[in-house]
Every structure is written in C-alpha cells, then in structure tokens.
Amino acid sequence: MHKAFKIFSSMKSEHFIHPSACVDDGAQIGADTKIWHFCHLMGGARVGNNCILGQNVFVGGEAQIGNGVKIQNNVSIYDSVVLEDDVFCGPGCVFTNVKNPRAFIERKSEFSTTTVRRGATIGANATIVCGLTIGAYALIGAGAVVTKNVKAHALMTGNPATQTGWVSRAGLRLNKSLCCPETGEQYQLVNGELVLKA
C-alpha cells in the first residue's frame, strides 16, 4: 500500500497519490505527478514526470506514459498503449488492445500496440481502435472513432474518423495560409505531411 505522498524518484521529489488510489507494487511514477481519486496503476506501469491522472483512471502493467501527460476522468490505458510526452486524453476516451475480443477466448498474446505521439490530443469520448499510431500534435475530435493511422497535426472528426483539417502545435485549426493564429508559427505541406517551416 501507499501513503498519500510517496517518494519514487531518485531525486527525492514528491508526487501526490490520493489515498483512495491503488498503486500496485512495481508501478513507476515520476516526480511531481498527481494520481487522483480511485485510480488503479498495475505493477509494471510506467508514468513519467509532471503527469495528471484524473479520477478513476486505470493504467495497465505494460502501459507506458511519458512526461507531462494529462489523462482526464474515466480513461483506461491498457497494456500495449504508449502515450508519449505531453499527450492529452479527454474524459471517457477509449483505447482498445484486441481487434476481435471474445469473453470466452483468451487473446492476451494478440494485443496490438497503440502509440500516441508527442503533444497529440484525444477528445472526450473518442475511441481509438488498437494497433494504430496517432501522429504528433494531432487532434482527435470529441466522439470520433479512429480506425486508421493519423498523420501529425491532423484534425480528425466523425465516425469513422476522417481528416477535416490541420492543427498547429497550439491545437488551433489552420486556415489556407497554414499559419497558427495564436503563435504565428508557419507550417507547410511536404509530400502530404504538415511540417513547421524553418
């Protein structure tokens, strides 16, 4: 069991674990991370520094969560899900890890890896089918059902999700000029991929 504050970091930085959370032996939690009400981290789970796990978040023993990740309430990060740094998971979003589950057939050996690249956002109640890669800084709209790989900076909406635009690193939709209205960063399309202009 754990105390409300537990030290895992070699630098002796504290992080917060709410007393109602369950953190199994062997889970790794980085400095300054906050684990809130009724979360459950399985042994072997890896959570980076400066993360926030909202109420009722589950993290599987083979899941990997980078630094600066924010996971809102009621999200399960199952085995074979990888969230890189600065990913945002909206409330109730869903990851899967088997494409054809059956209650009466054991398919743990068939888990498919899902990778969410740096800075991407998964909107509330979106569903990510397993075995996909969500590109860096992509934005998955609320309620979208993603069934294919997603390009970096792509805005994906609908069911099944289709690309309906591009977004900047700040998460704002880009117009035809491909200039972020908030930061002024200028982007360009290179072979169908959006990249930051040098």
Commentary on this structure:
It is a single chain. With 198 residues, the chain is mainly β. It contains no helices and 25 strands. The protein has a ten-stranded mixed sheet with strand order 1-2-5-8-11-14-17-20-22-23, with no helix packed on it. A hairpin with an 8-residue loop joins strand 1 and strand 2. It starts with a strand and ends with a strand. It comes from Mangrovibacterium marinum. GO terms for molecular function: acyltransferase activity.
List keywords for this structure.
198 residues, acyltransferase activity, ten-stranded mixed β-sheet, mainly beta, Hexapep_transf_CS, 31% strand, six-stranded parallel β-sheet, 0% helix, Trans_hexapeptide_repeat
